[in-house]
Amino acid sequence: MRVLLIDDEPFVLKLLARQLANLGFEQVVAMEHPHDALAMLESDPGAFDVVFLDLQMPDMDGVEFVRHLVRIQYPGGLVLFSGQDQRILHTVEKLANAHRLHVLGALHKPVNPEKLKKVIETAPPCHERAARKIYAPDELRQAIHNNELFNHYQPQVELGSGRVVGMEALVRWQHPDDGLVYPDQFVGMAEEHGLIDDLTRTVLANALEQARQWHDAGMGLQVAVNVSMDNLVALDFADYVAHEVERAGIPLASIMLEVTESRLMKNPLTPLDILTRLRLKHIGLSIDDFGTGHSSLAQLRDIPFDELKVDRGFVHGAHDYAPLRAIVEASLGMAQHLGMKTVAEGVETQQDWDFLRGTGCDLAQGYFIAKPMPAAAVVDWMPGWESRQPTLIKKKS
Q: Cis ω on the peptide bond leading into residue 372 (within 30° of 0)?
């Protein structure tokens, strides 16, 4: 793996190169002048698999350099590092991610060797990163018609007991040529081209069929299904959902609809009508990705949600980053005062789990528990999770 280091401090470059050598990375080029480094990348954007970029340099700061990486369509991994305020580092990381650069992480100086190891080992070589394909609406329409969409399920567990209480249904597309396609490649397109109703109804039908199988097996799992605000434009939507749940032969309360407002509502009255009627029918409502997009305090005030999901961007790493910790604790405290159940997404490490157990959060969801999996894999996963529970829920001494 080829690594480029950019920092105006020679000592920092030597130290970082030595740390990388100790980790087995020998193809390292260190450059003090960002303009020279940029010229090298402009001639061959794929010359390096990873770029380490200092934010505070006199000739060109890190934000400017990120802008140039976007311009030349740099395909490799990016690691940001700085001795500046950690919030500045975090902001630049968010900016680079928003530009769709492949950000591996952000490290504070002096760079901790263990954190460096964790970051650098997540970087695949450039030639292994395939370009994201853009799909046409007609392809998705045909996929829905051909039953190429199916659900994976990610467990939700109680932080207090470790007990599995629910599953979130996450749609996948089994493309006949491209294999498994993830929702970030087609859900937005479905919203833009009027396909979101057909997509949501397919996901819901598959989820209800699976929920019935779990119900018959005595597992008693609540199943969560994502709903776009664009689904909430027809006043009969609440009746449709209730009818489908009853037809599946499962309790209405065993379904949770997770509402994400990725775009502003054109007419806020119709969604308010529909969501209120869903709650009157005892179908659960969750405000998803709270704190991002248009999910806001106004929604908590106006819509009778009974669950709040804290976005993964706030949860992961909150245990050692004060601004994130403050946001998570404030969100959970507010939800608890409103009598809402709370779910933390993005629980990826033992530290995330331990931190959340101390906050009073109800449920956790994330890779630390399990990645999304086919329904058939859930039964095989359960015993392994149950064997971990005693360690995870033991009281700290």
A: no
Phi first, then psi: what are they for 323, rounded to 5°? -60, -45
C-alpha closest to that of 342 among 333, 351, 354, 353: 333
pLDDT of residue 194: 94
Is residue 315 within 8 A of residue 347, CB to CB? The reply is yes
- Tens of pLDDT, residue by residue over 97-110, are 999 899 999 998 98
At residue 323, the pLDDT reads 87
Contact at 8 Å (CB) between 328 and 344? yes
CA–CA separation, 335 vs 341, rounded Å? 7
What domains lie within the chain, and their CATH numbers? 3-128 (3.40.50.2300), 137-393 (3.20.20.450)
Neighbours of 189 (CB within 10 A): 17
Provide the 3-class DSSP secondary structure of residue 307.
Answer: strand
| Tokens 């991002």 belong to residue | 292
Give the DSSP H/E element, type plus range, for residue 166.
strand 164-175
CA angle 68, 69, 73 (to 5 degrees): 115
Q: What are phi and psi of 352, to 5 degrees?
A: -60, -45
Does 58 sit behind a cis peptide bond, omega within 30 degrees of 0 on the bond before it? no
Q: How confident is the model over 285-328, as pLDDT tens digits?
A: 999 878 666 556 778 888 889 999 999 888 988 998 888 899 99
Residues in contact with 70: Cβ distance below 8 Å, sequence separation at least 6, in sequence order? 99, 100, 101
CA angle 108, 113, 117 (to 5 degrees): 100
| CA torsion, ordered 270, 275, 276, 277, to nearest 10 deg | 90
If we measure between CA atoms, which residue out of 46, 22, 18 comes closest to residue 30? 18
Give the rounded distance of the alpha carbon of 213 from its chain centre: 28
Rounded CA-CA distance 39/43 in Å is: 6
Separation between Cα atoms, residue 319 and residue 352, nearest integer Å: 6
Spell 203-221 as b/e; 16+ CB within 10 A means b: bbbbbbebbbebbeeeeeb
Helix crossing, 62-71 with 34-43: angle to 10°?
Answer: 10
